[in-house]
Amino acid sequence: MKTFEELVTFSKSPEKLPLLTGIERNTVGGLRGILLQCKYGGMDKQVAKNAYHEKKRNYENAQTEQELHQLTCRIRVEMAKVNREMQVHGCELCKRVLAILDGRFLHEC
């Protein structure tokens, strides 16, 4: 994902946007809206400043969520590999531990 500063630069440019993710496009669009409202007098500077900081905070939160999602996906892939090895070669205790970690123990009760 691009940095927030890069998105601010894109929002000030009238040129066509490069390839951006949905979150990035949404942020650039919001920043452009803030700039236009300031330019044509629809928003005072303090409200614009607050809106800018809110956009920045929302974008940073979205970046964190994206990173957590990617990490979770990598963990799930690795756990699936371990799970498969344990189902084929593991002892009964290991199989039970993996079933608990995998959430399958809820269906056995």
**What's the domain count?**
1
User: Strand pairing plus helix content: what structural class?
Assistant: mainly alpha
Instruction: Report the span from N to C terminus.
Output: 43 Å
Biggest beta sheet attributes: none
Mean pLDDT: 87
User: What share of residues are in beta strands?
Assistant: under 5%
Query: DSSP helix count?
Result: 5
Order of helices and strands: HHHHH
Number of strands: 0
Fraction of residues in H or I helices: over 70%
Give the overall silhouette.
elongated
Using only C-alpha atoms, the radius of gyration works out to 23 Å
Low-confidence residue ranges? none
What does this entry look like structurally?
With 109 residues, the chain is an all-alpha fold. The chain has one domain (4-108). It is 80% helix and 0% strand. The chain is built from 5 helices and no strands. Helix 1 crosses helix 2 (22-39) and helix 2 (22-39) packs antiparallel against helix 3 (45-89). The longest helix has 45 residues, at 45-89. It is elongated, with a radius of gyration of 23 Å. It starts with a helix and ends with a helix. The model has no long low-confidence stretch (mean pLDDT 87).
